[in-house]
């Protein structure tokens, strides 16, 4: 069985290093959610009856998924020990980095440069008759703004991935009518108690 994602050390530097942040999310999703079919197949036990040579002499007309459903306790174990803990780690990272993105950033190395560029842009003389492009000015965005945009995108990706994983899990395990978020929220409540 796969292992849940490990919790990275949460610091503002981790969040602002968008390569490390994206790599963590990509690896975590790839290990658990993107390979959900393989993870669920790993829960199946080999044939209980052993190999029957006569089974190859006749054509099997049963659907390919016949006998591929999992035992409820296997599904619950996978959800409790692997899936939900991985989702929790990713949720914690996304929540923390979203908080960093909305906080003031006194350590922004580009803040002085942005202030200089802004003051130069205000002092510039614009004559659109001579140069129609002279009024253009595209200020650099602060790294908190860039991080906030990344967090919005990653939350949308996370939502899609969870819905896909949950639908495959429901298909193989015959689970309840709870949505992925509802089931995950219930699990988090039980973990806090």
Task: Give the topology, please.
Blueprint: H1 12-16, H2 18-31, H3 36-41, H4 72-102, H5 111-123, H6 143-173, H7 180-192
Helix pairs in contact: 4-6
Q: How big a fraction of the residues is strand?
A: under 5%
Rg value: 25 Å
Provide the succession of SSEs: HHHHHHH
Report the strand count: 0
Distance between the amino and carboxyl termini: 26 Å
* SSE-based structural type: mainly alpha
Q: Average pLDDT across residues?
A: 79
Outline the low-pLDDT stretches.
63-67
Task: Report helical residue fraction.
Answer: 55-70%
Tally the helices: what do you get?
A: 7
Give the CA-based shape.
elongated
Q: How many strands, what sense, and barrel or not for the largest sheet?
A: none
Describe the model:
There is one protein chain. The chain has 193 residues and is an all-alpha fold. 59% of the residues lie in helices and 0% in strands.
Q: What brief labels describe this structure?
A:
193 residues, mainly alpha, 59% helix, elongated
Short description:
With 193 residues, the protein is mostly helical. The chain has helices at 12-16, 18-31, 36-41, 72-102, 111-123, 143-173, 180-192.
